[in-house]
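User: I'm writing a tutorial on reading structure tokens. Could you give me a worked example: one chain, its sequence, then its tokens, then a sentence or two explaining what the tokens reveal?
Assistant: Sure. Here is the example chain.
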Amino acid sequence: MTHPSRLPVEFPSDEWLLDGDLESLGVDPGKWESFKSSLNIRGASWEGEDHTGNQWGVVVTRRGGVIGSWGDPEYRFQTASVGKAFTWAAFGLAHDAGMVDPDDPVNATWTGEGELSHEH
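And here are its predicted structure tokens:
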């Protein structure tokens, strides 16, 4: 079995494939339908955040194509610290590709310029 970090990452060219051809995206349609039927997909409210009605959105992608979407695909929400998970994943891919070493000091690869909101 190939480790997930060794699998190719595929992005759409200019547009996401929206035709719903699950098999061409490497998804077994029967298993996908079984998975979806086991879910209770809906918006929710939590700690003062109201995401009921159509105030939420989820899109599931694979190999440059959309395999499922729920809610409002145009809905935007402040995700705050969730970016750390994506940064961790990107750093892991960069490490696997030999682009960075986790033992190097930060100033070896970061210039100090960028999007930080305040002094650190």
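What the tokens reveal: The beta strands are 44-46, 49-51, 57-62, 65-71. Residues 78-110 form one domain.
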